[in-house]
Design a protein that fits this description.
The structure is a homodimer of 170-residue chains.
Chain A lengths: L1 E6 L3 H14 L10 E8 L5 H13 L4 E10 L7 E5 L3 H9 L16 E5 L4 H14 L3 E5 L1 E7 L5 E8 L4
Antiparallel strand pairs in A: 1-2, 1-7, 3-4, 3-6, 4-5, 7-8
Chain lengths: 170, 170
């Protein structure tokens, strides 16, 4: 089964992201707005208990924190994904690092860029228009993060939460 | 904010339900296949901690259990919703009852009928066709339930998981 690990920001931030995703993100209906901590990895039903135990440990070792979003950015020229850029913060980096070592395979192809995707798979002209507009708009979002989620993928490409992990508490 | 409480069955059962929901359920993209334990209720950010504490207690008081699904049924003439009928089982009834008392308002209009919705808002002719076909098909599903989820609704009508509660463990 394919699992992934992500943070859902607050409802306010999810609503704000969805207002854009609805029009511009082909994966809008498959998962709520999120910050990916670990990209999809295969785990079978025997190993999942060990994964869960390890995630409790990792969650317990990091206290809740605030994230800040001040602008949109893109992954071009690699992909034309547009995202809300999360300002670099030690706690996010720590969690992400711990999810690429020990019992976890390092399945991260690029350096960790925490973000919330708001658009992907756009035509080139549309991409330029949207990036231009959103860069002018500006963002000033502060959000409190106190948990992350282990999810699994269904056959239709959507994701269901398996378990929640509370930061600084386990 | 509007919260709800539900069980996600296993991936296998969710995939089976989604194969039908994709064509017949207008709410297909808003939430994964689920068994509703408590219908949507309003809670503010000050009260949510108390709700979470109470849910830990309730989850801890009920051991994991198996559900059995042997047929489809409908809520007609009240609505034309078609669902996978969960055979009555004490544990489900116990959890549901505890979610309608104490700090929880009883917001259940009808008696508790545990089910997984697979179709709703159908035209009458389509409804009759589908019910007829699915009743002939027959179902024999057994599924292990060891957790439930507290979710909140986003502005677009979709649901995000807030926290997971493990049965018999808290």
């Amino acid at each position: 089964m394919k699992y992934g690990i992500a943070i859902f920001p607050s409802k306010t931030v999810q609503d704000q992201a969805n207002a854009l995703r609805k029009r511009y993100d082909t994966r809008y209906s498959l998962i709520p707005p999120h910050i990916t901590l670990k990209y999809p990895f295969e785990t079978n039903s025997e190993e999942i208990d060990e994964v869960v135990q390890e995630l409790h440990k990792i969650a317990g070792s990091v206290d809740p924190f605030y994230i800040h979003i001040n602008k949109v950015s893109t992954f071009e020229p690699v992909t034309n994904t547009i995202y809300l850029k999360i300002e670099p913060i030690e706690q996010l980096k720590t969690i992400n690092e711990q999810l690429q070592q020990g019992i976890f395979e390092n399945n991260q192809k690029h350096s960790f860029v925490p973000h919330i995707t708001i658009a992907q798979d756009l035509e080139h002209d549309e991409f330029s228009d949207i990036v231009g507009r959103l860069k002018m708009e500006g963002f000033a979002i502060k959000d409190y993060i106190d948990r992350f989620q282990l999810l699994y993928e269904l056959d239709n490409g959507s994701w269901t939460v398996y378990e929640t992990f509370l930061l600084g508490k386990e």
